[in-house]
Amino acid sequence: MAASILRRSLLAPRCRAGDVAALHSGPSRRRAQGLGPIASGRRAGNSPAGERGVAPWVAVVGLEIHAQISSNSKLFSGSQVQFAAPPNSLVSFFDASLPGTLPALNRRCVEAAVMTGLALNCSINKKSLFDRKHYFYADLPAGYQITQQRLPVAVNGSLSYSLCVGGKKNQMVTRTVRIKQIQLEQDSGKSLHDDTRSQTLIDLNRADVGLMEVVMEPDMSSGEEAAAAVRELQLILQTLGSSQAIMAEGQLRVDANVSVHHPGEAYGVRTEVKNINSARFLARAIDYEIQRQIKELENGGTVMNETRAFDYKLGCTIPMRDKEGKQDYRFMPEPNLPPLILYDTKSLPANMNHQQVVNIDWIRERLPDLPSVRRVKLVEQYGILPEHSFTLLNEDGLMEFFENVVRQTPMNPRKLIGWILNDMLGYLKQHNLTVKESPVSSLFLADLLNLLEKGTISSSAAKQVLEELWKGEEKTPLQIVKEKKLELIQDQQELEQICQAVMEGHQEEVMEIKKGNQKVLNKLIGLVQRTTRGRADPVLVKQILEKRLSQ
Amino acid sequence: MTHIRSAARDCVPGCGNPGGGRMWILRFGRYIRGAPSGGASYWGGLSLGSRFTQAAAGGSDGRQEAAGDPRRRGRVYQNPTWQHVEQRPLPEKKVTVEVLDHLERLALVDFRNWEGVQRLEKAIQFADQLHAVNTEGVEPMDSVLEDRCLYLREDNITEGNCTEELLGNARETVEEYFIAPPGNIPLPKLEERDTFLQVSE
């Protein structure tokens, strides 16, 4: 499976040599066309050796994820947090770093960080400290960012995610990645580059918005694993409500640290890949970078410790202009902020103002069910397979849709899930719609399936009705059934007459069956169906025919 | 005693003391009172000297008392309470050119000439006195605010919407955006710069 990923990215549009602004000198590389199945597999040695007998490569991927906290006001000032607003309209004097302003920490951001830490099984530091990270860039007016480098809010957690492995992608395995720390930090402003006039336009609306940085240990070894882990983290954050985690709006930003090495040897030099805008691009960017490093090393070059940006149009990573060399951030304790003290029920002092207290135990009691718990509950409650519950939770709103339909129809959930995942989800993907935008409501689907259950229509007729419903013309299933005359023939006599007619019209087949060739019976059933235009219940037809034939 | 008088001379006369003629000499934290009946002379020369000799000879009777009248009794000790620490010169070789270049690049300071570098070295020597302190078993202090409570603000919108005021501070703006140069322009390499650091040993 790893090899198939490689082949896919080998065929991806290749960067022009000029684009890869080759800052590093080194042996000239020939364009590596079709280098064959170079393996970059998982660890534990199930990656096959390359064609040229080179030792197998193992990739090491670590992620740094910045999630924007969902709050009304910013981390250290009282200005609003909003995605699209007139430039520089949501900026307070502190955000613009005017002299004489001081930070005032937002309680909601602390609670969001503690919730996320608890959900990721971290140990929460009751005392955490704020630091300054100094670097110069136009969208950071103060020249430093207030973050928590020495003692963050939460440390040492884990995140479990599932992914599909196996040739047919039907086997689900669970992997875990360790969380090194979760810290609170400020966001920087936004810079728009205007190359024509050689200037940068700065918008500080995003400056000082609260971010949770989740630092993961390098436990992953492919782009697919990274994408699955990020998706799971996204679901957790959305369930908790601490962040809406929409990558397209920049509320969830992922930077990947990628390196390759031979198993058993020391880790290789890592590069950092930035500017990844969606989970899909994340997998592609990481796989491309793994490949690039392998090619580089196999050609005798070296990998430089640099920062690269992912260009999604070309599908490749390019060195970034401004981040040459290793940055020295000159960390120092933030002098304007005392340590952040969190309490639990044991350590809570008696007469403290409630508004000033963040109680870890209080938050832990109020944590909602995490996605992993909800999946288990779905499997237990409805008897569906784990893969199904995974897909249900993966699509936004699909689980609610499913539960609504289950409530309104006596159909077995296991049968229902087929309709949801195959038919409904298939249509949604085809028309690129979300569940919320579906023209077929849960009510209509339940009505349709009730008709099916009652025996009013057959399964194939139901599929026809569903197709009709997708046109979104506000007709109920019953109306459509009546219009298209799709009801099953209930009248036994009528059915018997039709069967008789078919039998009389096909005496040869009747002879065959009487001789003992049962397969021809299916042909007769098919003929009956055609005559009735699918309105005959196949089971009943078979019974009638068999009765007649044995006479 | 010469050094004391020169220090006294360094103090700016008439530095706005409200209490009529008293002068703080910071080096010894001593509270000196000059002639009480207002006047141009800040300290009677001889009387000052005698007061000093008195004190220097361990004049206080065991108990540290603040000089001056009871109404102005402060908590300032008569005798110095710290010990003099030998200011060692920098242990390794002096600050190297590589470090200076690194600092100039990082913090965008300009040492300008060797005198500036010497000032840096003196500052390092001054701070190195801390090595004489025994800090075994002592938790490092991260903040002088460590015994204060960090105030937690409620999540309400209280600020913002002052676009014109903010943009008024900038020299160039366009359509409510601030204008900045296109990305960081790093300092050129040491060899390509016109700086005194190039004359290196």
UniProtKB/TrEMBL annotation, chain A:
UniProt GO MF annotations: asparaginyl-tRNA synthase (glutamine-hydrolyzing) activity; ATP binding; glutaminyl-tRNA synthase (glutamine-hydrolyzing) activity
Tagged with keyword Iron-sulfur: no
- Annotated compartments: Mitochondrion
Principal place of residence: mitochondrion
GO cellular component term, pick one: mitochondrion
Under Enzyme Commission nomenclature, its number is 6.3.5.-
- What positions does the domain Asn/Gln amidotransferase occupy? 400-549
Report the catalytic activity: L-glutamyl-tRNA(Gln) + L-glutamine + ATP + H2O = L-glutaminyl-tRNA(Gln) + L-glutamate + ADP + phosphate + H(+); L-aspartyl-tRNA(Asn) + L-glutamine + ATP + H2O = L-asparaginyl-tRNA(Asn) + L-glutamate + ADP + phosphate + 2 H(+)
Q: Which GO terms describe its biological process?
A: glutaminyl-tRNAGln biosynthesis via transamidation; mitochondrial translation
Q: How is this protein organized at the quaternary level? A: Subunit of the heterotrimeric GatCAB amidotransferase (AdT) complex, composed of A (QRSL1), B (GATB) and C (GATC) subunits.
Q: Cite the PANTHER family for this sequence.
A: GLUTAMYL-TRNA GLN AMIDOTRANSFERASE SUBUNIT B MITOCHONDRIAL AND PROKARYOTIC PET112-RELATED, GLUTAMYL-TRNA(GLN) AMIDOTRANSFERASE SUBUNIT B, MITOCHONDRIAL
| Family statement drawn from the similarity comment of this UniProt entry | Belongs to the GatB/GatE family. GatB subfamily.
Q: What is this protein called?
A: Glutamyl-tRNA(Gln) amidotransferase subunit B, mitochondrial
What is the species listed in this Swiss-Prot or TrEMBL entry? Platysternon megacephalum (big-headed turtle)
Automatic annotation (TrEMBL), chain B:
Start and end residues of each stretch annotated as Disordered? 55-74
| Subunit text | Subunit of the heterotrimeric GatCAB amidotransferase (AdT) complex, composed of A (QRSL1), B (GATB) and C (GATC) subunits.
Which residues fall in a compositionally biased region of kind Basic and acidic residues?
A: 62-71
Would you tell me the Gene Ontology cellular component terms?
Answer: glutamyl-tRNA(Gln) amidotransferase complex; mitochondrion
General function of this protein: Allows the formation of correctly charged Gln-tRNA(Gln) through the transamidation of misacylated Glu-tRNA(Gln) in the mitochondria. The reaction takes place in the presence of glutamine and ATP through an activated gamma-phospho-Glu-tRNA(Gln).
Q: What is this protein called?
A: Glutamyl-tRNA(Gln) amidotransferase subunit C, mitochondrial
Q: Which NCBIfam families match?
A: gatC
Record-level GO BP terms: glutaminyl-tRNAGln biosynthesis via transamidation; mitochondrial translation; regulation of translational fidelity
Keywords recorded for this protein, A-Z: ATP-binding, Ligase, Mitochondrion, Nucleotide-binding, Protein biosynthesis, Transferase
Catalytic activity annotation: L-glutamyl-tRNA(Gln) + L-glutamine + ATP + H2O = L-glutaminyl-tRNA(Gln) + L-glutamate + ADP + phosphate + H(+)
Q: Which HAMAP family match?
A: GatC
The UniProt similarity line reads: Belongs to the GatC family.
Q: Name one GO molecular function term.
A: ATP binding
